[in-house]
Design a protein that fits this description.
Chain A: Belongs to the GRAS family. DELLA subfamily. The complex is a heterodimer of chains A (543) and B (348). With 543 residues, chain A is α/β, with parallel strands linked by helices. Helices cover 45% and strands 11% of the residues of chain A. In chain A, helix 2 runs parallel beside helix 4, helix 9 runs antiparallel to helix 15 and helix 10 packs across helix 16. Chain B contains 10 helices and 8 strands. In chain B, helix 5 crosses helix 6. The chains are: A alpha/beta (543), B alpha/beta (348). At the A-B interface, helix 1, helix 2, helix 3, helix 4 and helix 7 of A face helix 1, helix 2, helix 3, strand 1 and strand 2 of B.
């Protein structure tokens, strides 16, 4: 079969007209870091080079003196962090080698769960996905015709031109171009690939250009949102990765604590929590008392959906003998939540869990005449006041909050076409169609909404690092064990092409080398500690 | 070992390579030791965790932008394409595959690059190889296509060669890569295992009736071997980052089960290989580092090409170690870059 490309939009970090560079390098390095090694992905101060070299020699000697079985075991079981920070990396390897003369024991809790799917009650792990070949061959044309390929490229050209018109305020030109694109769409396969993506973006543009009152997203009830969310959860691994990685970090942070409290910024159906409850149940030494506070929008029709979820989770906890209490906090916006609503007890170990929620706080007004802090700062401030053991944050790895419309449009075109591509490869119907609708709503919000209505203000990891650093949080690095578990999770999906990457203590999940979501973990320094901006840069060394 | 001895051994090794290069390659060496298991399996999760990667970037950085393309969905074969840019203006998303002839009236070389890693390590998006490919773009005013081939031990011979062959065909059939004469001007290049792959893909192109013409092969410290233990292997074993034992491990991981190192993939001019005489094989530039223990096999490769009537230039760098081309901090680096530039421009 002749090799082909399915999407006209290749995978890359998109062009941006601003001078800021790639998502990985927006933090400028201090001048004394060796520039050539930085280019190779390693951060070493020039003044430290000799010291690092000596440690490497010592490490080599230590490795030569270890039996090779021991080394392999070390490689499999030791939890290693942040390989970019060479100095710390070499020292941690040295101490691992020196410490363990006997075989180290496997951290078994979560790995047992991964290899025994039946241990998880009602969770996604029970699903067996059929082999991908049938699905892929049915969905994709065996070869794009020349006409289709040309039309695909033309559509992309037209989309970019249209976005430019919109940026310049030339709405009538944009409008007529939209009509041209809609007719060109009829000649392209909108079931997959470029046709599908173009269709979404043309729709979003048309809502922006033609909607009365300027701009409008796709209306929908909270209930509909939940359904779409659930299908997005099932159809592709992004949310599962988010939950899995956050749970791993939370589990480790709760080690040794008997009273623990998780605050979930967006409970939805509570899909994240059965796995954590199970893992806590199996903890050596016995489970802690677990409190879960779930935040979610108020239910419109008199149901108390938060409470319903809480009851189900309580059932599960009871079945595995974990003492459990649930509290629901109904709020339409995260900034409406006040810390006293969470009733955090100073003796508990607190974990704050935010999966794709923080970016919505960036929609608040920039300048407040009363000089109140911006919503994001207010919320980060009260999170800090809870003194959490860990704050788990998962966000889209994209810059969809740029002030210029064209930049935003271009970035989201790249981002969502990669995401659609990944969906094409692995999802089954009907999950896939509804998952696509979920994504389509996001696209609409990014493209056709403005002001407080534009909630999907995704920002890349580098910028979240800066924000959280300024707010007094320090990174807790996710290590090689979390990486390995996440990679193993992905092998449960028959579609190869997803990849987990380590990025200075954070993990990203992407499709074919383009990271799409980023997971990170944080803790707060005690309130009295001075917050110094440059301390945030080299994560490992600070701790 | 006494403290002072330790320091002087350190110093003498480091005088051969700059300190930061020494740190970089030693770190690789030790990390790789952790990844190879004695039973022949490979700790892939840890390898991917440790590998420092960079995303593709359609914003031109120093005149080069990049983007990734899926060439074959069935095997998830990805390539990273690097193109020169004259402006700081990022290309429009639809212009990533703008025809090269619209930007240049002279011929545009297309270099298909195979990264090193002894068939098991690294990827097209590894930071060190992303950097190297970007350099080649600027140096040769070329489009570089870096192949993310399948690696050992999960994918043995001939997977990497097959992937190279797939990409070669793909490159040949891209209208946007044609120069003004309506032909794609193709070079193959690679370091370490990538050099080995370049040879075998060129061979396949020559032997098949494909009509694909490869204008030149650029092999940097190519990975070859054989059953015999050569003098350089014995003399340099373990001295400069590489050992015979690790070379053996990688061959066992790549070659088919039961094969020995005289398999033609490993030893293309050995007792089991077919002759290259009369084969329309491309001109080759072979760079050999004088402190690489594999150099006798590399020089044998050069001799083999010559004896078969093929055109080859070898560049022997006496004091160079493996990986000298990764950082631009030594004279060998610049020598090699100049040679590559001359080779591409004179054969394009």
């Amino acid at each position: 079969m002749v090799p082909y490309e399915t999407a006209a939009i290749p995978i890359a970090n998109p062009p941006a007209t601003s001078s800021s560079t790639t998502t990985t390098t927006t933090i400028s390095k201090p001048p004394e870091i060796d520039g050539l090694l930085a280019g190779a992905g390693y951060k070493v101060r020039s003044s430290d080079l000799r010291h690092v070299a000596q440690r490497l020699e010592r490490l080599e000697t230590a490795m030569l003196n270890s039996p090779s079985q021991h080394l392999s075991l070390l490689a499999s079981d030791a939890v290693l962090y942040n390989p970019s920070d060479l100095s710390t990396w070499v020292d941690s390897l040295l101490s691992e080698l020196n410490q363990s003369q006997s075989l180290p024991s496997l951290p078994s809790d979560l790995s047992d769960l991964v290899s025994n799917p039946t241990a998880l009650d009602g969770s996604w792990m029970d699903q067996q996905l059929p082999p991908p070949t049938a699905a892929i061959h049915n969905q994709q044309p065996s070869q794009l015709t020349v006409v289709e390929e040309d039309s695909g490229i033309r559509l992309v050209h037209m989309l970019m031109t249209c976005a430019e018109y919109v940026q310049r305020g030339e709405l009538s030109l944009a409008g007529s171009l939209i009509q041209d694109m809609q007719s060109l769409l009829t000649r392209v396969n909108t079931g997959c690939g470029i046709g599908k993506v173009a269709g979404c973006f043309i729709d979003a543009l048309s809502r922006r250009v033609f909607a009365a009152g300027g701009g409008g997203g796709i209306p929908g009830s909270a209930y509909e949102t939940e359904i779409l969310y659930h299908h997005f959860y099932e159809a592709c691994p992004y949310l599962k990765f988010a939950h899995f990685t956050a749970n791993q970090a939370i589990l480790e942070a709760f080690d040794g604590h008997d009273c623990v409290h998780v605050v979930d910024f967006n409970l939805m159906h509570g899909l994240q929590w059965p796995a954590l409850i199970q893992a806590l149940a199996l903890r050596p030494g016995g489970p802690p008392t677990l409190r879960l506070t779930g935040i979610g929008p108020p239910s419109p029709d008199g149901r108390d959906s938060l409470r319903e979820i809480g009851l189900r989770l309580a059932e599960l906890a009871r079945s595995v003998n974990v003492r459990f209490a649930f509290r629901g906090v109904a709020a339409s916006r995260l900034e409406d939540v006040k810390p006293w609503m969470l009733q955090v007890n100073p003796k508990e170990a607190v974990a704050v869990n935010s999966i794709m929620q923080l970016h919505k706080l960036l929609a608040g007004p920039g300048l407040d005449p009363a000089h109140r802090p911006a919503p994001i700062e207010a919320v980060l401030g009260w999170i800090r006041s809870l003194n959490p053991k860990i704050v788990t944050v998962v966000e889209h790895e994209a810059d969809h909050n740029q002030p210029g419309f064209l930049d935003r449009f271009t970035e989201s075109l790249y981002y969502y076409s990669t995401m659609f591509d990944s969906l094409d490869a692995c999802a089954l119907q009907p999950e896939k169609a509804l998952a696509e609708m979920y994504i389509q709503r996001e696209i609409c919000n990014v493209v056709s909404c403005e002001g407080p209505a534009r909630l999907e203000r995704h920002e890349p990891l580098a910028r979240w690092r800066e924000r959280l650093g300024r707010a007094g949080f320090r990174p807790l690095h996710l290590g090689s064990n979390a990486f390995k578990q996440a990679s193993m999770l992905l092998t449960l999906f028959s579609a190869e092409g997803y990849c987990v990457e380590e990025n200075e203590g954070c993990l990203t999940l992407g499709w074919h080398s383009r990271p799409l979501i980023a997971a990170s973990a944080w803790h707060a320094l005690p309130e009295t500690a001075a917050v110094s901006p440059d301390v945030a840069v080299v994560g490992g060394a600070v701790m | 070992m006494a403290r002072s001895n330790e320091v002087s051994i350190n110093e003498s090794k480091q005088m051969v390579v700059p300190l930061n290069t020494w740190v970089l390659i030693s770190n690789f060496k030790l990390a790789y030791n952790l990844l190879r298991r004695p039973d022949g399996t490979f700790n892939r999760h840890l390898a991917e965790f440790l590998d420092r990667k960079v995303p593709a970037n359609a914003n031109p950085i120093d005149g080069v932008f990049s983007f990734d393309v899926i060439v074959d969905r069935a095997t998830n074969l990805l390539c990273r394409i690097y193109r020169p840019s004259d402006t700081d203006e990022p290309p429009n998303v639809a212009d990533l595959e703008k025809p090269v002839k619209s930007e240049s009236s002279s011929t545009v070389p297309v270099i298909v690059f195979f990264h090193g890693g002894s068939f098991a390590h690294s990827s097209a998006n590894s930071a060190i190889y992303d950097t190297l490919c970007r350099r080649l773009v600027g140096l040769c005013r070329a489009v570089v296509v870096s192949v993310n081939y399948r690696r050992a031990p999960e994918h043995r011979y001939p997977c990497a060669y097959d992937d190279g062959w797939t990409v070669l065909n793909w490159v040949k059939s891209r209208a946007w890569l044609e120069s003004t004469d309506s032909k794609v001007h193709i070079f193959l290049a690679g370091d370490s295992s990538g050099g080995n792959i370049a040879h075998h893909v060129a061979l396949k192109a020559a032997e098949s009736e494909s009509g694909i013409e490869v204008l030149g092969n650029i092999l940097l410290n190519p990975m070859f071997g054989g059953e015999l233990r050569t003098e350089s292997e014995k003399r340099l074993d373990g001295k400069y980052f590489v050992s015979v034992q690790d070379r053996d491990w990688y061959w066992r991981a790549f070659l088919p089960d039961g094969a020995d190192r005289d398999h033609p993939a490993c030893n293309p001019f050995g007792p089991k290989a077919a002759s290259l005489e009369g084969v329309k094989f491309p001109k080759s530039l072979v760079v050999v580092a004088g402190l690489d223990l594999v150099q006798d096999w590399q020089m044998a490769y050069v001799e083999g090409l010559k004896k078969a009537g093929q055109q080859v230039k070898d560049l022997y760098l006496e004091k160079a170690t493996i990986g000298f081309y990764l950082l631009p901090n030594n004279a060998h680096f610049h020598t090699v870059m100049d040679e590559i530039k001359k080779f591409v421009s004179s054969n394009c």
